[in-house]
Amino acid sequence: MRNFEIGILPESTCFSFSPNTEAKEIFLYPTMCGHYFCTAEYYIKRKHFPRLLLVYVCSGTLYLELSEKKYQASDGQILLFDCTQPHHYYATDALEFYFLHFDGAQAHELCRYINRTSGLVIDGPNNEKVHDELRDLIQFYEDNNSESVMASSGRIYRVLTLLDNPVMSPQLQKHGDAINEAVRYIRSNVGKKITLHELAELCGLSDYYFSHIFKDITGLSPSNFITYSRIDQAKSLLSSTSLTLPQIAKQVGYANSSNLIVQFTDRVGCTPQEFRVQHQGDEWS
């Protein structure tokens, strides 16, 4: 698809996608990607857009205003940010870039994690590989190819993995192993009551400091991480067993199925029963 918006030159290319329900629930998925050649008139300003944006700047400078802060990315640099926040990005001269709008299961949490560990403007050792991945993606669609939702999701994960080049402070580096141990403990004990103090004690840190370090490294507070771990385990049980909802609730640490339904629906966007029907094709009693 050719795009002729103001500031975007005719030689630019853009592709849009409409993900199916399954893609939205369990995969990362692209919603738009392209290769833009822009003039100084290029200008996007939004209060909200429900996607994430990854940009690789080939030449020129892309300016970004986000959360009352200003950023800029030039030749060979990458921008990754959450468009659900008010944002404004623009060019002041000739600009060429590849871009990918994407979303999906825990996509926003992954974005926050990468922003915390690698920055919003990324100038890492794998930037050229990201360029190659985006270039190949655009060429793939220009050649009228298609692929499965899993393969498409794999492309996005591959790119995000290349961006995972943490630039941690000495404090974060010092406690990285301890936080990884806490993560393993949470995932192994989702059926039990897990307290902040218990996790902090496991890491040899105060409750406050553990909570701060944990969020800096994982992108989620300990309580949110525990909840998402329980929901992930519930998804697995719903799709692979015939356990009743009260049985699943007990196995993933909820006192009753009502609590599970509330947390699951809030984070997944459908009830556990709806998720089971969609992923097993048959509703269990």
Characterise the protein shown here.
With 285 residues, this protein is of the alpha+beta class. It contains 11 helices and 10 strands. The protein has helices at 21-26, 107-118, 127-142, 149-163, 170-188, 196-203, 207-218, 222-240, 245-251, 257-268, 272-280, and strands at 13-16, 28-38, 43-46, 52-59, 62-66, 69-73, 78-82, 87-91, 95-104, 121-122. The radius of gyration is 21 Å and the shape is globular. The model is unreliable at 281-285 (pLDDT under 50). Keywords: DNA-binding, Transcription, Transcription regulation. It holds the Pfam family AraC_binding. GO terms for molecular function: DNA-binding transcription factor activity; sequence-specific DNA binding. Residues 180-278 form the HTH araC/xylS-type domain.
List keywords for this structure.
285 residues, alpha+beta, Jelly Rolls, Arc Repressor Mutant, subunit A, 2 domains, six-stranded antiparallel beta sheet, 11 helices, disordered C terminus, HTH_AraC
Rounded to the nearest angstrom, the radius of gyration is 21 Å
- In whole angstroms, the N-to-C terminal distance is 47 Å
Low-confidence spans:
281-285
Say what the CATH topology of the largest domain is.
Answer: Jelly Rolls
What is the CATH architecture descriptor of the largest domain?
Sandwich
Biggest sheet layout:
6 strands, antiparallel
Sequence of strands across the biggest β-sheet: 1-2-9-4-7-10
| Total of DSSP H or I helical runs spanning 4+ residues | 11
Strand content: 15-25%
Q: Order of SSEs, N→C?
A: EHEEEEEEEEHEHHHHHHHHH
Name the shape in a single word: globular
pLDDT averaged over residues: 88
Number of strands: 10
Q: What is the SS-derived class?
A: alpha+beta
